[in-house]
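Quick review question:
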């Protein structure tokens, strides 16, 4: 199935989507999706080679100082090009490179970012730019939320998972030794700039981790997209550009719709946590950084489906389809018994926050998730 443009008319459950994709001429090769969160409306800009164009950044950088946060893996690849573009906007550019890994999404490295802000005398008109995957985006966003009670920031995601999930929606956080994402804030970026060219340097494991989050949207709210994933998984794994662009845009549209309806997770946004209660237990039990987040979510989604079958919410055939689909991306679909023991420390109801009923019963599932997320918000 080829690339399809214009999801503004897509229907889910009989409801017209309110999120619109703005298409421009093929020569410009840039597309914009608008996220209308309650606290801020901002664009997700898709295109090839966006890092090299200052015009993609200048409207969202109000002051004269910018701190770019990246890591030691991404920095050598893309920092120079981004810095050149930002310098062309007339700003003073400062940088900090973090170690690469989930274990560095910590208070220690948050303070290192804030120390850089203080060192270079940033103020409320200054901006932060997150150049990296989910770890860099989460910690940079939280630093932006904290510094002088909030400064603008831009997300420049460089992994597929960050594009389709963590860069959109304003969840920012660092980990605590006793729990993942326990210290953070809801804080929306001024823009998300997706240069599709950077995905060419992703290794196969990182690509698969992003595919896990793409499949998630099909499971929780977009059954036609789940079928599309089944039909196009081989093309995604092979990195077909049109297929990946479609998957990214449709995933972001799904994410944006949920954020528009429930920015701070008082209800339906908790459905985005499918697989995450189990996944977070896997990450914590194995040690942060041993499993990629998307890998843990993939196994967690299968575990959630299995629990849903036991609770009578889901037909077993959907579990089998999910397991088969994720395995085609070389994602883990099971975990060792000690992980189940770790999850068992949660109550059955807490784990059931992840469980999912039949795909035709989205409203009933959302109602269950709303009740459970209100009782256990720290697991989101």
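Suggested answer, residue by residue:
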């Amino acid at each position: 199935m080829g690339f399809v443009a214009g999801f503004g008319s897509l229907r889910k459950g009989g409801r017209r989507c309110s999120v619109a994709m703005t298409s421009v001429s093929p020569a410009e090769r840039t597309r914009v999706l608008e996220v209308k969160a309650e606290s801020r409306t901002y664009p997700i800009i898709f295109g090839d080679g966006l890092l090299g164009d200052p015009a993609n950044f200048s409207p969202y950088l109000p002051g004269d100082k910018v701190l770019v946060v990246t890591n030691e893996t991404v920095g050598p690849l893309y920092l120079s090009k981004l810095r050149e573009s930002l310098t062309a906007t007339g700003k003073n550019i400062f940088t900090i490179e973090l170690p690469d890994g989930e274990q560095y999404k910590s208070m220690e490295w948050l303070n290192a970012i804030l120390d850089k802000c203080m060192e270079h005398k940033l103020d409320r008109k200054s901006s932060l730019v997150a150049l990296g995957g989910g770890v860099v985006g989460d910690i940079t966003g939280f630093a932006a939320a904290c510094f002088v009670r909030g400064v603008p920031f831009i997300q420049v995601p460089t992994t597929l998972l960050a594009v389709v999930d963590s860069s959109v929606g304003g969840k920012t956080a660092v980990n605590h030794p006793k729990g993942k994402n326990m210290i953070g804030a809801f804080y929306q970026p001024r823009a998300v700039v997706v240069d599709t060219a950077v995905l060419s340097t992703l290794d196969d494991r990182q690509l698969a981790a992003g595919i896990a989050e793409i499949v998630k949207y099909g499971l929780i709210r977009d059954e036609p997209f789940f079928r599309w994933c089944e039909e196009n998984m081989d093309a995604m794994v092979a990195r077909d550009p049109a297929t990946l662009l479609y998957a990214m845009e449709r995933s972001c549209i799904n994410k944006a719709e949920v954020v528009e309806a429930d920015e701070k997770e008082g209800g339906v946004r908790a459905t985005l946590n499918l697989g995450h209660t189990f996944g977070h237990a896997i990450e914590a039990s194995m040690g942060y950084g041993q499993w990629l987040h998307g890998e843990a979510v993939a196994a967690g989604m299968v575990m959630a489906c299995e629990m849903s079958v036991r609770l009578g919410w889901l037909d077993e055939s959907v579990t089998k389809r999910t397991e088969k689909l994720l395995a085609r991306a070389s994602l883990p679909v099971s975990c060792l018994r000690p992980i189940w023991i770790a999850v068992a420390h949660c109550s059955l109801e807490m784990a059931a926050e992840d469980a999912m009923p039949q795909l035709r019963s989205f409203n009933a599932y959302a109602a269950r998730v709303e009740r459970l997320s209100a009782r256990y918000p720290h697991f989101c």
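Why it works: The first helix runs from residue 75 to 88. The chain is about 45% helix and 15% strand.
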